[in-house]
Structure formats: C-alpha cells, structure tokens
Design goal:
Elements lengths: L5 H10 L6 H17 L6 H20 L3 H21 L3 E5 L6 H8 L12 H8 L5 E9 L3 E8 L4 E5 L2 E5 L5 E4 L10 E3 L3 H12 L3 H4 L2 E7 L3 E6 L4 E3 L5 H15 L6 E5 L7 E4 L1 H15 L6
Helix pairs in contact: 1-2
Length: about 300
C-alpha cells in the first residue's frame, strides 16, 4: 500500500473545501497518522529505524560535545593495532640529522609512538608534521616494509640572538624564531636588537663581516626605527650609522681609529650619520676635565 505524503493529504483536504484553520490542520495530521498505522511495515524496518536513530544520536553527541578528535584517534589506534597484529609494527627506527633537538622531540612531533603501524603511517603527513618544529627546515620519511621506518631531518642553523620587547630568542638566517634563548647556550652568536632586526640582520651582518676590526668589538647591533643601525661596542661606546652608505661610514670609522685611536678614547658616542662630519660625545668625566681646562686657560696671570 502506498502512503500519501502529508502534502498530498493537505491538498486533498483543501480540495474538499474544509476551512484551513488550526482544527483543520489537526484533523489532517490525525488522518495521515491513522493511515500509517494501518499500513503493513516490512520485517526488520523497526530495527533498522531504531539503529539509524541511535547512530544519529551518537553522531550528534560526538559533534556537539566536541569529541570528534577523540573518537577519530581511537579509531586510528584500533586500526593500527590490527595492522600491528598482522606484522606491520614499527620494530626499527633510524633517525638522523638531529643536533639541536632531541630524538624524543622529533618522534613526538612526528607522532610516532610504539603503537603506530607502519602500514597506515602517512609519509607526507608525517613530513609536514615534522616541519612544524621551527628547528626543522625539511625532512625525509621512508617506510621499508614490514617494520622499518627511516627519518632524516635537515635542521636550520642558529644565526643570531634577537632581542625584542625585553625577550631574547634564537633565530635562523631567515628570521625564524627557533627557541627562547637560555644562557649560556649559543652565547657566541651575534646579538641584534629591535623590531624588524630579525629579517634585516643577515644583510647588515654580512656587511659588517667585511670590517673585522670593527666586528670584533661589537656587542650588539641595534636597528633604530626599522631604518638604520647603531653599534654598541663592548666598551660601551655607541656608533650611530647612517641609513645609506653604511660601508663608507665604517671605513671612515676605521680610519679615525687608526689615526687617532678614536674608539679607545673617553667618549660615549660617535655619530657618523652626516657624510661631511664626525661628531663625538665625551663622557661626563672627560667633559668635566675639558671644562676645567678651559676655565684655567681663561684665567689671567696675577700680579707679583
């Protein structure tokens, strides 16, 4: 027996001229349900419908309760255990290329545990997971059945220490933050300071390397206003460099130091920003001595 849809019932009742009010809708619904109850339901339909309702309820609960990831992980774990029982357990793991990060960190990032199966391990997914670690620039993952896994990682090189907003981080040459700096580890790396210094330090330090007499005295390179650099020397002297023609300014600084021992004098700052002059600021002690000498020279000789 074919059951008419609710819309068909409504259309039929409207055609009969009945008033479309609340009582009319109630009578229409009652007639439709009575028709369903008189219909012969196929054997097993009740179990099927009940199962569908239960599954739909479980699915709704999983999504609504934000348990989807937990359920997915449980299913993956069960799948791996079946594969392990069939002989696809990872029994040999060869790891190479790690220097700054430990073996445990690499395996945790890759998601490789004692319960993972080689059969269902996704090579590309594992490689992308490894690259989420800032130390790892690239990785190669190779499966050798039935139970050997090989992982080779290529680490980024620690390039400099970058200080910004009072925090010091170890960075790579491209500015990637590798880890917070914890002394005395990597203490010999150059120190750069300021917003934007992380991405501009490579070119500046390469230029500074051309002048080892200066580079050896530098304690920190400070980017000012993301436009130009200052040098803080190990003796506390500040060297203010211009925005352009930095090489010419460094050559002038070397010449002045060679001729007048400028960098070892009692001064606190050297300003090289103007191309036609060099300005030096004396320390407070040196300024006081100069002021006293000036006063002595202005005094007239007394009468005898």
């Amino acid at each position: 027996m074919r059951i008419a849809s609710p819309l068909t019932w409504l259309a039929g009742l409207r055609a009969s001229g009945e008033h479309a009010g609340p009582s009319w809708l109630r009578r229409a619904a009652q007639r439709w349900f009575r028709t369903i109850l008189k219909t012969n339901v196929p054997r097993g339909a009740g179990i099927t419908a009940t199962s569908a309702v239960v599954l739909a309820t479980l699915a709704y609960g999983v999504v609504k309760g934000d348990h989807l990831a937990t359920v997915t992980d449980a299913l993956k774990d069960a799948r791996d255990q079946v594969a392990n029982a069939a002989g696809f357990r990872i029994v040999s793991l060869a790891l190479s290329g790690e220097r700054h990060i430990s073996r445990e960190e690499v395996l945790a990032t890759a998601g490789v545990t004692g319960r993972r199966s080689l059969l269902f391990l996704d090579v590309e997914e594992t490689r992308e997971r490894l690259k989420t670690n800032p130390w790892i620039a690239d990785a190669t993952v190779l499966k050798l059945y039935p139970g050997e896994l090989q992982i080779h990682i290529k680490e980024r090189e620690a390039f400099a220490l970058w200080q910004k907003d009072g925090r010091v981080s170890v960075i790579a040459v491209d500015g990637t933050i590798l880890e917070p700096y914890v002394p005395p580890r990597l203490l010999r790396l150059p120190l750069i300071v300021g917003r934007g210094a992380d991405t501009r330090a490579n070119a500046f330090l390469a230029l500074l390397d051309r002048y080892p007499a200066i580079r050896e005295q530098v304690r920190a390179s400070i980017l000012v206003g993301q436009r130009r650099w200052n040098l803080r020397l190990k003796n506390g002297l500040d060297v203010r460099l211009p925005e352009d023609n930095v090489a010419a300014a460094l050559e002038r600084l070397i010449a002045l130091d060679r001729e007048a021992k400028l960098l070892s004098r009692d001064i606190v700052a050297v300003d090289l920003r103007l191309p036609d002059r060099v300005t030096a600021r004396l320390s407070e002690a040196a300024a006081k001595v100069r002021l006293d000498d000036s006063k002595d020279k202005k005094k007239k000789p007394g009468k005898v």
